[in-house]
Amino acid sequence: MTRQTQATTPATSRPDYTLPASEAAFERACRVIPGGVNSPARAFGAVGGNPPFMKRAEGAYLWDIDGHQYIDYIGSWGPMILGHGNPQVLKSVSDTLYHGTSFGAPTEREAQIAELVASVVPSIEMCRFVSSGTEAAMSAVRLARGVTGRHKIVKMTGHYHGHVDSLLVQAGSAATTLGAPNSPGVTPGAVEDTLLCPYNDVESIKELFQLFPGQIAAVLLEPVAGNMGLVPPKPNYLEQLKEITEKTGTILMFDEVMTGFRLALGGAQELYGISPDLTALGKIIGGGLPAAAYGASKQVMAQVSPSGKVFQAGTLSGNPLAMAAGLETVRILKNTDPYDYLEKITGQLEEGLTRICRDQKVNARVQRVGSMITLFFNSDPIWNYEDAKRSDTALFGRFFWEMLARGVYLPCSQFEAAFVSVAHTPADISATIEAAQDALKAIFTN
Ligand SMILES: *Cc1c(COP(=O)(O)O)cnc(C)c1O
Fold this sequence. Notes:
The protein is α/β, with parallel strands linked by helices.
């Protein structure tokens, strides 16, 4: 955390890769913005050094203010599944723009996008739009508690649901550990009803239900974890969660802010055929503008104000520009069905990275579901946060910078998934694999 204010780029084996304009911009930003960034994931705390500042994006590429071009594997951390600057999305936003940017009154497009979401996400009949994934998760937890009249929630270690006070707990070694807050400013009271459980561990969750009978309002999880690097659910895990929650009258809540519209049009719930009781959506649903949503059956959603008693509101909720970008993005996904293509090219990336790591005898493994992928510097299978934390993060940091110097923009942490978009071509994938091979050579011969 402390090294963010220091304007130095870690050396790569490419001395021609320097970021003087970005360093100056960062120094300036650090004087007026904490750590120089408006979201910590953008700072390079986990890999050292300071971030390039971006100027422009198009398709699968980013350009920084120092004149470098990158193949982008962040896609704004998930939303840009169509690539940057999709012409139809841009047109829809610009057409909307000149009619006014916010009314604080209902517009027709809100029902259109809600209808579309309900028609493609299996468990959703109604949804409410908000402005961020954090807000969606926070509101969904309130609704789960309001509907069940219970207080406790179960959260998986290493899963991220935005910066909601009651969900800012991750650490805890034993299955049944009661959580300690993850951040100063979160009171013990805010997390006293949050129970922690390791992901992919059915026995631990059964234990929690035995310890707190009739008290658990909801079990929350990323059905496919993306915020500790990519970790898929074990076979039958989601089925068993569904069974346990159904039997105990507990709300099963899928946080599909990252996986929604990404792993399939209907998200992870479509891919795995498991319907949760409550779903949080975000990222892709705003098409690159700030929008998110939570949705469920009519019966559950009817409890949200003003039709029900669970309060939730937002000045910019359902914002016309965000709705235009989101509606067009989801429409294009529905009309073009790009999921086979995403599976194919991300599969090529997985294969290539696996091959070069094996050839160069690097302790690494690639984990992937659809167009979400992580290269872990750890040769053991990763099923939960404890496994993920055993990865070689120092090696990841070196690899990250060597890739950046070769024009490949990866997530700046071992514990984040990379995203492939429809705009990525097989040539982009080949170039990325070549860059990775070259980067590993540079690391292991230096
Ligand atoms: C990104 C993310 C969030 C938070 O969304 P914001 O829009 O950043 O508030 C919540 N849950 C998951 C699974 C996410 O990936």
